[in-house]
Amino acid sequence: MISPLLFVFCTSVMYWTCQASQHVYMVILRGPSTVHLFEDPFQDSPQIYLPSQLSPSEYASYLVSTHDVLLSSTFREGTYKKLYSFSHLVNGFSALLTAQQAEILDQSEEVVLVERDNKVTKQTTYTPTYLGLPAGAWQDEGGAINAGEGIVIGLVDTGIDPTHPSFSDNTLKPYPNASRYEGVCEEATEFPKGSCNKKLVGAQHFAEAAIASGEFNATIHFASPLDGDGHGTHTASTAAGNNGVEVKVDGISFGFASGMAPRAHIAIYKALYPGFGGFTSDVVAAIEQAVKDRVDILSLSIGPNGPPPGISTCLSTFDMAMLSASKAGVLVVQAAGNAGPYSHSILSFSPWICSVAASVHDRTYPNSLVLGNNASIEGTGLASATPGDGMYTMILASDALREDGSDLLDVNDCQNSSLFNADVVKGKVMICSYGIDYLFGGSSINDVINTINKLSAVGVVMFATSDIEGRFSIPATPFSIPAIIIQTNNGSKTLLNYYNASNQAATVRIKGGANAKFSHETPKVAKFSSRGPDPENDNLQIADILKPNIMAPGSNIWAGWSSIGKDSHEFKGQQFSMISGTSMATPHIAGIVALIKVKNPTLSPAALSSALATTAFSVDEHGNPLLAQNPSSNTSIQLGPGTPFDFGAGEVNATAALDPGLVFDAGFEDYVRFLCTIPGASGVVQNLTGIECKNTSSSVTMLATDLNLPSITISNLSSSRIVPRTVTSIARDSETYTVTITEPNGAQIAIKPMEFTIAPNSTQELSISITPTKSESKPSFGYFLLAGSRGHKVTVPISIVAKST
């Protein structure tokens, strides 16, 4: 079945209208890829014996040749264009085809799946301290100078600014070689030889589908790994930027930045571009190359705009490529999406992916002003205060016009200094408007700053117009002058009423917003963060997977920025920016996983995800539930108790995740057994993985509920169930664990055994009996806790909709 697939990256959503004649399609063929055919795709030892005893590289070449033969034998030369051959993670290709050609391929016996490729678009100074890294996880690894050393984090994003100090290898302690990494560093005029180093070990770009679409413009999009957007530089520096890099914006210092794993290596795979975003084929090609290059972790601030129509959420080419990455030992960390706060808005689906929600941390940059009548108004703006403690006269922009400017309709946006009388404005604070045009590039803060400076004004107060208040959030905005943006209509009315009543004698003092304030409150789920469960409710087996999995800071995150970045015009020309999204939360987790891998290098991707989940903060220090902005259980309230469908297992606890005591492990065969329960999936599974779904008996298949995940989710508990789980000890000593249970409403839970002693590297089976006691119309939540005698605490969230008969 031909299935369109649309992706969203960061906060914007864009739609692609293709050329009428041809589109890019991804075509998946029968037969396993390299990862699925060989025990170790990097060794010359095939898992099954081929007639010619091919090596992995020879087999990959063989697959590429089959792609070429299929196309050339089916269509006339010159009527199509192959863009990529996929051979490592999936067996297939992407090509520029007509809809009729795609339909012909879809009917071919050699073809498993045809997906039309659509456009993709995009989805820290304090967070290391906030997450307890300096005194915890970093200290455990010998300090920031060692944290994450030797691990390669691959990021599929918008590229990187190689000149940024966050990626320099000229550090106090020399970087070692990334000995396992096999990637390359592309060279181009704007990305010259020497752009990579022992910190930035690899950089490649992928744009074949973007070029074929006609949207790629080499003069502005750069056919190289250079980041013309800013987003990729931001995520890379969050994951593994150097420690102690000063954050300076418009001459104001905001502290010193560090990535979560400041000594880890970075490999960039550019597949997204300013303006139009990118295409799925380019993203899949980037993922395949990253795994082939032997990255340790993949950070993807990218995800589908919704469930792929016509196929299971778990069976898209994108998700199957990530399953293959997991088989190759690479944990994929993926943004949950920015479609919150509504339930079933999660954009990261499969159980082999670590899906990341975004939290609001406790650092803010409040700004305010004091009027001459002693009224105070709160606002925003990363700006200095007006000089001294004195008051300054205000002048509304429209009252400072030159005589020949009086016929203009709207001058309060202060975009053109030539319209105003400098003698009237000099030494005063100018009042300007802030409307929706500032969010979409029609008006510029830089033009306001230029106006203030050219007129020799002291600063600016900007009031929100009616088209923005209550509809859009005003982003963190840097100013090189004293400034404030009033965000509410009430605040704007208070300002303008005072000014109009004062007969142009109104005065003001701007307090400034350059100094951080810390509330020391519990983390909160950000409003924009996508919520679970999986939207595919017509297939309850798939809905029985907890999503998201983990939460990390994702609101107002300081991190590196490309000086030519176009994604945030507020930070144009800067080396750092403060932006928000689950895109920002994801590299926090990728960096923390790097820290875990240093201490526990043999853990599987599933075990790494488990270490994050079972040690997370699911309640605050008082035992109260974590809060969520507009919780999915009741989006009408601004702030209330969250649930696992909002935050997964909870806010990441970086230090505890290094030493979780027990992990819930799962492997590729477990995921295949799960996929075999999905109606109509057996053929796809067999042809993509080489594994046959022989029958539907319990010995072969595995329900989603029975996957060995660090959570239990049952969307329709109509009768008693026995849910199996197995824990593996990765602790250094034997430990005795005691089980305690907090039951969800409408369910009775019993666990055997309730106490056990487990030795290092040993396993313990748990039998969890769950019985409905009364019907519930909505999900209810509980958990069980494994408390160890040596201090380990393993928490497993439970989400159930009980249907008692």
UniProtKB/TrEMBL annotation:
Name of protein: Uncharacterized protein
Compartments in which it is found: Secreted
First-listed, main subcellular location of the protein, grouped into a coarse class: secreted
Location of the Peptidase S8/S53 domain: 148-633
Residue ranges of domain Subtilisin-like protease fibronectin type-III in the record: 706-800
Pfam families: fn3_6 (PF17766), Inhibitor_I9 (PF05922), Peptidase_S8 (PF00082)
GO biological process: proteolysis
UniProt cross-references to CDD domains, sorted A to Z: PA_subtilisin_like, Peptidases_S8_3
GO MF, one annotated term: serine-type endopeptidase activity
SUPFAM superfamilies: Subtilisin-like
Span of the signal peptide: 1-20
Swiss-Prot/TrEMBL keywords: Glycoprotein, Hydrolase, Protease, Serine protease, Signal
Residue positions of the active site: D157 (charge relay system), H231 (charge relay system), S583 (charge relay system)
UniProt source species: Ceratopteris richardii
Family recorded in the similarity comment: Belongs to the peptidase S8 family.
Cellular component terms per the entry's GO annotation: extracellular region
Domain Inhibitor I9: 49-121
